[in-house]
Fold this protein.
Amino acid sequence: MDPLFSVAGKVALVTGGTSGIGTMIARGFVRRGMRTYITSRNAGQAAAMAAELAAEGTCIGLAADFSREDAPALLAAQLGEREERLDVLVNNAGANEVAQIETATADGWDMVMDVNLRAAFFLSQQMLPLLRAAATAEDPARIINLGSIGGLHIPNWEAYAYGASKAALHHLTRALCKRLGRDQPTFPK
Ligand SMILES: NC(=O)c1ccc[n+]([C@@H]2O[C@H](COP(=O)([O-])OP(=O)(O)OC[C@H]3O[C@@H](n4cnc5c(N)ncnc54)[C@H](OP(=O)(O)O)[C@@H]3O)[C@@H](O)[C@H]2O)c1
């Protein structure tokens, strides 16, 4: 199946690739021959995980703290120094704060919203030139957003900001799809 579904030679960025689902996604990309970038708030942790994943291919760690407003632009600049195109952006980095309604804080709310929602939008914005440089009519570039069951249906724990951020991310994904799909000649209007 390799020739049919090959991603070898493509470039991917997986935010928050130092643990959990992000590491799994990055490992899969690396194994299939993608030059894969991962991020962490901690440059040392990003480098350490990248070194582990690079045992099976190419993986590079970059530092980014998405609670900071300038992180998407800084990360885009870092990647732009190394790559001329980006085939796949995975907005995976996520934060949670479980806080009861009586004690939830504005700082916790803002942190979760900033990492889960603001960063996904502005990183997509900042990466557009590299994504557009990779895209062809036959093989568009991709943005993958990690949503959550916590943003659907009936919430089952007190994670107000998390659930709201993921529900918003689901809708943001539809909005991005509507606009960026227009870049793709075969996309249904
Ligand atoms: N696990 C689940 O059951 C589940 C279910 C539904 C959806 N999700 C979503 O899937 C994604 C991954 O989940 P996971 O469980 O694999 O998470 P995880 O193991 O907690 O990993 C989260 C990643 O996000 C990064 N991160 C956290 N805060 C950050 C910040 N301020 N700036 C930059 N990076 C930050 C962490 O990097 P550092 O700590 O190295 O900085 C880490 O690599 C998240 O978006 C999550 O909401 C997870």
